[in-house]
Amino acid sequence: MNDDLKERLSTQGKRVCEATLRFEDRKSKLEVFDANSRIKVRATGLKLTEGDVSAHILIADGRLVLTVPLNEAKAELEALKKDTDCLLALAALTCAEVAANSRISQ
Fold first, then answer.
1. What's the CA gap between 94 and 10, in Å, rounded?
2. Which of 12, 43, 44, 71 lies 20 to 30 Å (CA to CA) from residue 85?
3. CB atoms < 10 A from the CB of 54, how many?
4. Could you say which DSSP state residue 45 is in?
5. pLDDT one-digit tens code per residue, 22-80
6. Cα gap 50→78, rounded to integer Å
7. What pTM, to 2 d.p., does this model score?
8. 8 Å CB contact between 84 and 16
9. Which SS3 state, helix, strand or coil, does residue 80 take?
10. How many distinct structural domains can be found in the chain?
């Protein structure tokens, strides 16, 4: 495999790792917010079904500020997945080409 392709694969791996960390961080922040919101709703003492509690959480002030970055991180991961699939396909083609050229030269 050529050095350029190795470098691209290595860089892609770093990008995926960083994007995954961003996604996990944003997901964690939203989960903490949701848990705190659930506690606040339950603390009101109202008799609510689980669906009612979930609805209160979904419309809680401040949730959208956390949801948008999470969705952006998820979209970034999806885009990186497609890029990675393309790079891996290119690597497979490059390896097949090298193997074919090796057999031809023998």
1. 16
2. 71
3. 14
4. -
5. 999 999 999 999 999 999 998 988 899 989 999 999 999 999 999 999 999 999 999 99
6. 32
7. 0.78
8. yes
9. helix
10. 1
